[in-house]
Amino acid sequence: MRSKAYWGYSNEFMEACADELRVDATQLDENNYACFVAARDRTVLGYYALVQESASHFELDALFVEPEHIGRGIGRILVEHAVQRVADAGGKVLTIQGDPNAAAFYLAVGGREAGSRESDSIPGRYLPVFEIDIAER
């Protein structure tokens, strides 16, 4: 929530998307779901969640960096880790539904624009979708 709020969203907006942004224990128990944390000296810097949709297709379900660490390369490290995990699992494509404020970041880490998708939290709000072709990396 702190990472999302970094972009200046209103309290009402944050409340509307709170459930969508939360990772719960049931997700962590699923075989196709994995969560990875970047930490230094027992301090969480950020995390991402990865969902295996099929043998060749994975989706970055979440990627958040603590606000004081945004712009310091943690997000890039997390994406590179995700790409390596997908490659190691034989995946071909990593799909990312990103926040509009993070579009430049996802393009900079090798994503290509692949359309948009309606927000699960806010009807009528469309979010950019990016894809990373694992074979091209």
Structure description:
- The chain is an alpha+beta fold.
- The protein has one domain (2-136): Aminopeptidase (3-Layer(aba) Sandwich).
- It has helices at residues 2-5, 11-21, 25-28, 74-88, 103-108, and strands spanning 33-40, 43-52, 57-65, 93-97, 112-118, 126-133.
- Strands 1-2-3-4-6-5 form a six-stranded mixed β-sheet.
- Strand 2 (43-52) and strand 3 form a beta hairpin.
- The protein is globular and about 40 Å long.
- It starts with a helix and ends with a strand.
Summarize the structure.
The chain has 137 residues and is of the alpha+beta class. 29% of the residues lie in helices and 34% in strands.
* Total beta-strand segments: 6
Span from first to last CA?
31 Å
Rg of Cα set: 15 Å
| Mean pLDDT level | 94
Structural class: alpha+beta
Fold-level CATH name: Aminopeptidase
CATH architecture: 3-Layer(aba) Sandwich
Strand order, largest beta sheet:
1-2-3-4-6-5
Indicate the percent of residues in helices: 25-40%
Largest sheet: 6 strands, mixed
Domains, number: 1
CATH superfamily: Gcn5-related N-acetyltransferase (GNAT)
